[in-house]
Amino acid sequence: MRILLVLPAGEQVRVTRHRPEVPKRAMLRFSVLPLTVVAALTAREHEVRIVDENVEALDFDADIDLVGITFMTALAPRAYQIAREFRSRGKTVVGGGYHATLVPEEAAGHFDALVVGDAEGAWERVLRDVAAGQLGRIYSADGAEALVACPRAAGGARDGGTLETPVPRRDLLAGTAKYYVTIHAVQTGRGCNHGCRYCSIAAFHQRTYRHRRLDSVLDELRAIPRDFIFVDDNIIANREYARDLFRALAPLGKRWVAQCSIEVADDPGLLWWLREAGCCGLFIGIETVSEENLAQMDKEFNNCRRYEERLRKIHEHGIGVVAGMMVGLDKDDPGVFERCLRFLELTGADAVQLNILTPLPGTPLFAEMKRAGRIADGDWSHYDFRHVVFEPAGMTAEQLQAGADWLYAQFYRPDRILRRFLHGALTGGWLETWLALKLNLTYWYDNRREGIRGRNPLLDKGITPPQAARATTAR
């Protein structure tokens, strides 16, 4: 059987036959792990190909038998379009991923079958049923066939057991590897032991966390090049496991980046081993500097009063920080954008990934906003964290959009990028500084390509810049 696995891309970054140039944003691409895992679950008797629309044009007339598409909410419209095109040509199309799992009632109407939840244990059954001409409608790892949304677990996070997953088929990316910062993405665990109300990860994994056997992870790490990325949602979700991993990783001489909770700064020993194991940088979800916002999102463990201290400790270990920030929460007002910019400069963040608060379907936040009538935009393609899709509480939607764009453009202004680079070169390690510079320039390029400028909403009220600074400081 000839199988095509597809990762859809948004309109702004999609490569097509008529637009073949690949956008120069390799630093924001790191493999397509879900599809390389699905490929690894596929028996070698089948011919498998992967197309990532971010780097390669999709051929709807390809000679294939089965198409698999994985997608998140913002890419649902494109995934449905792809499915429609292939089905019109008589191809069997299977959907999966976050949106298919959390909104199966909607997604099922666009595909011949759905895989909800993890692919392991479900994809193999899909292939057997396709070969037998008995394809069902809904497949899950535990064999459940009911068309129901993935329920949230009651109470706190649960131990989901051991994660069994194959080594990804990275060889299938050989032809496009140059377009990624790395094709060597490694996952030690899935899920998260926190339950932030905006987070689709907690909803998808039903607030469970599972990790792989350590020997399996180390075997995989020994077989890949020196530089790679951990794609765990929180590399220290299980601290004992993380410590064992870092100790075993230290002698291998690897260099890597990961996502991590800011809580790592509270464990000096763990932080030391993190660096000894080769960690060069961490993406940390800081989200907001407002205690009230953190409480509303069930993320009080971040403890914003200790941000400066914690981030300083991480930097002192020679580890760069990409700060994940969120604007548009209910306690945010038009001054939040200047406050956020000053915070990022004060704490020496090496880069920022800025998200406009987005109520993703399947999360408690989405359910709450829908009940309150605050969902203002039903176009899933706008659920990309860069569009306002709800009615904000502390400002207008226009102010939120303009302010978010302004903050992104201001942080990645050339003079600020240069200042961060020089500071890093004088005080930090060259590798971390070089990686940060490449990431900064990629975001600057993205902003220019998409024409992102925005404006400071405080100026809408006729407040001059010095007055604006005093107003934000007062808050």
How would you describe this structure to a colleague?
There is one protein chain. The chain is α/β, with parallel strands linked by helices and 475 residues long. It has two domains: 2-140, Cobalamin-binding domain (Rossmann fold), CATH 3.40.50; 158-474, tm_1862 like domain (pyruvate-formate lyase- activating enzyme). It contains 17 helices and 15 strands. It has helices at residues 33-41, 76-88, 98-102, 104-107, 123-132, 200-204, 214-222, 239-249, 268-276, 291-296, 307-316, 336-347, 364-371, 397-411, 414-427, 430-450, 465-474; strands at residues 2-7, 47-52, 66-70, 92-96, 113-116, 138-140, 158-162, 185-186, 189-191, 208-211, 227-230, 255-260, 279-287, 320-327, 351-356. The protein has a six-stranded parallel sheet, sandwiched between helices. Strands 8-11-12-13-14-15 form a six-stranded parallel sheet. Helix 8 (239-249) links the parallel strand 11 and strand 12 (255-260). Helix 8 packs parallel to helix 9 (268-276) and helix 12 packs parallel to helix 14. The radius of gyration is 22 Å and the shape is globular.
